[in-house]
Design brief:
Helix content is 52%, strand content 13%. A five-stranded antiparallel sheet has the order 2-1-5-4-3, with helices on both faces. Strand 1 and strand 2 form a beta hairpin. The two termini are 39 Å apart.
Amino acid sequence: MKLPNILQDHPSFLLASDVYSYCHNFFKMTGINSFSYSKVYPDGSRMELWSDSQALYHIFVEKKYLADCYTPNNYDEKNKYLLLEKKIEDCSTNIRKKYYLSISAQRNIFDHDNCFMIINKKEQLCEYFLFYTSVKFLSAINFYFNNITLLESFSAQFREEAKGLIIKADNDRLIKPWRDLTLEKSEDIKKTVTPPQSKRAILTEREYQIAQHILEGLTARESANILCLSRRSIETHIENIKNKLGCNKKTELALKVQKLNILSKDKFEE
């Protein structure tokens, strides 16, 4: 897979070998085989530094799987540590499809699997540190969650010691601005209009997932582990579901959800 001449001198690709050199000892120590660092801005522009320039080119330039996605919309401030493949189950159908295509390409073409994310969502940008292992690393997920401190330490060191690389890539972002923030702000105002009280309560997709877990007999802690959220967040969601459906107990909630057939995918709140 050869990069077009026009891209060979772009910082995101020119600096990939430096990123790999920085990561090399870390890869040998941990079994991780690929790393990427990204900054995404409100205007849609993205700064990308990857240890594998071919994978970067394939995902963002050749196939453009995520080039037109404002990915910070898929995460909130509570989403700090995530397994990407698990998290995207929460996304809209269109975004979920793009993520799955990207994951499949990483896995099947480059042997980059088990993507683990550390996310710093700030007001002016969203910062991502992504780690991958080989498909053959069967205990990768356990490794990640048993070594959060190590991954955090590496991420902080990379941000500091590779500051020069980050500045170069940030000065010529791989994805240029494409979002009309003025238009989107007006759309956000429209979305905040309160619907008529007579309209039947509708669950959000997150509430749907948690309600489904209740029907399956999972505890709040088990649901929290599956969704990578805190137990307190799950309990808050459960209270919101109860309020929407007008019930007080989980048993009553389960019965009402089944009775209303509200778990249908086409009844998600947009």
